[in-house]
Amino acid sequence: MALDIDGTITDDQRLLHPRAVEAVGRLNSRTTVILVSGNVHCFTRAAAVLLGTSRTFIAENGGVISWGEGEMELLSDPAICQEAYRRLKEVYPLAKKDSRYRITDLVVESNFEIQEAESRLRGWGLEADLVDSGFAVHIKDRKVDKGRALAKVMDRLGLSQEEVAAVGDSISDLPMFRVAGFRAAVANGVPELKAKADYVSGEEFGPGFCEIVDYMVAEEMI
Ligand SMILES: O=C(O)COP(=O)(O)O
Ligand SMILES: [Mg+2]
């Protein structure tokens, strides 16, 4: 299972839900859980350790892949994001967040018109785009997303589409839905994601995620 963190196993304040922790524990005994997050590498790694999930995981919305302990692969060019930030800052009052720990993308506060900024990036011919997870606005390399990184992980681990489920809440999870065979969204997910999901939970956040795991067990998918 490719599993998102914020808004899927946490609440809207990013607090980990105890029932989601229990559900991840159940998954760990049945299958491999790969965290796929917009969070930085060190945060995602700490989550993997605390949840007992695979040390192969995806961070920074696909910009960083951790291949088990010790090997890290960067899929994005940080210079692309830096240049986009520099140009956008000439127009908007951008404020960086947790930049010290970011390796590839940049996170800024949501104090500007994202769609307008994206069309400016395109107009300037830059290779960067923006994605708003509902928790953070990321300036990222356009060729990077959670789905492309997940496809790389599947390839290396020899996993077919039918063997992979993706679970998430935000627009940043949509690219994962293109490569996974089973797609599930929590009820608090964005409409664009829920529209593409095979299963949408009735409950929101952590309890919704538990419901998804219960459904997959009942349907003998795991
Ligand atoms: O970093 C974010 O913006 C949100 O993190 P997520 O991808 O785990 O939901
Ligand atoms: Mg999320």
Automatic annotation (TrEMBL):
Source organism superkingdom: Archaea
Enzyme Commission number(s) from the entry: 3.1.3.18
Cofactor(s) listed: Mg(2+)
Keywords: Carbohydrate metabolism, Hydrolase, Magnesium, Metal-binding
One Pfam family it belongs to: Hydrolase_3
Binding locations of substrate: 146
GO CC, any one term: cytosol
Active site residues per record: 4
Record GO terms (molecular function): magnesium ion binding; phosphoglycolate phosphatase activity
Gene3D superfamilies hit by this protein: 3.90.1070.10, HAD superfamily/HAD-like
Residues binding Mg(2+), per UniProt: 4, 6, 169, 173
Stretches of the chain forming a coiled coil according to its record: none
Enzyme class per UniProt: hydrolase
Catalytic activity: 2-phosphoglycolate + H2O = glycolate + phosphate
Entry's family note: Belongs to the archaeal SPP-like hydrolase family.
Function: Catalyzes the dephosphorylation of 2-phosphoglycolate.
Protein name (database record): Phosphoglycolate phosphatase
